[in-house]
Design the sequence.
């Protein structure tokens, strides 16, 4: 009988400690500016081990917070490399489409066309951020959906999650690829259109309908 | 006809005395406040930023629930939420400490009041059964000293 190595094992418990011994391992440098400078003489990293650099913390000039977060949100089963491939492919599709449009456009229209796919992704995600969230609050045996205020980072996460769910729905059963759906959705969202913007507006509508429950908050 | 309230039909009804009712004061509890106030669950003045929320929803309704034109209202609502969360945290901190002269509110919290009363208790407040029914050695058990014979419950 052949025992094949398992690609991933499901872990149901949180790690109780790091596999790096805190006594002999130190954090790596991921900042580009800092990397150019020499280490000071009393820095512990001169003589201790350095932890392995995380794959999304490599020192690159194109490091982008929104894209990194989108990669994490779109990840399934811990396959971050696969997710990054998908998201970057979507950005490439956006770039190609924008460049085609730029080529076709007349000279006075050219400066209006945004060529940076990163910029388009940022604007798109920013447009999808909801203003509040709905949270269940149980009062007197009844659970009410109460509109709650939302932190900026959570709003960003919820925008990405809505977009991811919509793209997954579109890419179900191999109808399209996830990257194509994500590219289309990001481009539409940057124009304040599309299914994710509609989902956000639906959420706002439900919050408005449930505004009478707002005093159940806290 | 001569009229007097003493001779009215009501006053002369069966079992009523024609003499005015005599009220006798009896100090059941000492006539002063206690040293302790029951502590309620300390909570800051509830501010759910209703006005800001209403204006935000008004703006959303106006623009068909699109959030982009409502940045100003959203900022105001967020600021209000932040400020009220900060005030609540501050209130909790001061009420926990029970320290005097701290916090934004002018009046004392319950904890502060209790602490002050602990330092300077009411004089001659006495102990919990304030009116002791005590019989002197010369007095008999059979005498109804405290007028409790007709009272329901256990006679003392």
Sequence:
């Amino acid at each position: 009988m052949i025992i094949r190595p398992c690609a991933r094992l499901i872990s149901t418990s949180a790690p109780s400690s790091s596999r790096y011994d805190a006594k002999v391992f130190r954090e790596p440098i991921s900042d580009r500016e800092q990397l150019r400078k020499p280490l000071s003489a009393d820095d512990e990293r001169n003589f201790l081990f350095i932890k392995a650099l995380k794959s999304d913390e490599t020192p690159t000039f194109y490091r982008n917070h929104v894209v990194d977060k989108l990669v994490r949100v779109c990840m399934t089963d811990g396959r971050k490399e696969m997710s990054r491939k998908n998201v970057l492919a979507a950005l490439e599709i956006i770039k190609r489409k924008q460049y085609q449009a730029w080529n076709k456009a007349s000279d006075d229209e050219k400066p209006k066309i945004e060529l940076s796919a990163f910029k388009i992704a940022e604007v798109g995600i920013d447009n999808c951020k909801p203003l509040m969230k709905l949270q269940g609050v149980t009062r007197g045996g009844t659970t009410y959906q109460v509109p709650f205020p939302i932190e900026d980072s959570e709003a960003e996460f919820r925008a990405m999650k809505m977009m991811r769910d919509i793209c997954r729905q579109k890419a179900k059963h191999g109808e399209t690829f996830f990257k194509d759906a994500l590219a289309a959705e990001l481009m539409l969202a940057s124009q304040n259109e599309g299914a994710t913007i509609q989902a956000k507006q639906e959420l706002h509508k439900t919050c408005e309908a449930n505004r009478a429950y707002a005093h159940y908050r806290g | 006809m001569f009229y007097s309230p003493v001779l009215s039909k009501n006053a002369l009804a069966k079992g009523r005395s024609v003499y005015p009712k005599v009220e006798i004061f009896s100090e059941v509890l000492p006539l002063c406040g206690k040293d302790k106030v029951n502590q309620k669950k300390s909570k800051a003045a509830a501010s759910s930023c209703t006005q800001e929320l209403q204006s935000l929803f008004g703006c959303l309704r106006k623009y068909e629930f699109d959030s982009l034109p409502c940045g100003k209202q959203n900022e105001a609502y967020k600021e209000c939420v932040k400020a009220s969360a900060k005030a609540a945290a501050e209130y909790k901190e001061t009420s926990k400490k029970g320290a005097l002269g701290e916090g934004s509110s002018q009046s004392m919290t319950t904890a502060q009041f209790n602490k002050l009363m602990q330092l300077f208790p009411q004089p001659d407040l006495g102990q919990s059964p304030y009116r002791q029914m005590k019989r002197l050695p010369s007095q008999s058990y059979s005498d109804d000293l405290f007028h409790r014979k007709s009272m329901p419950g256990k006679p003392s």
Notes: The CA atoms of residues 12 and 33 of chain B lie 42 Å apart.
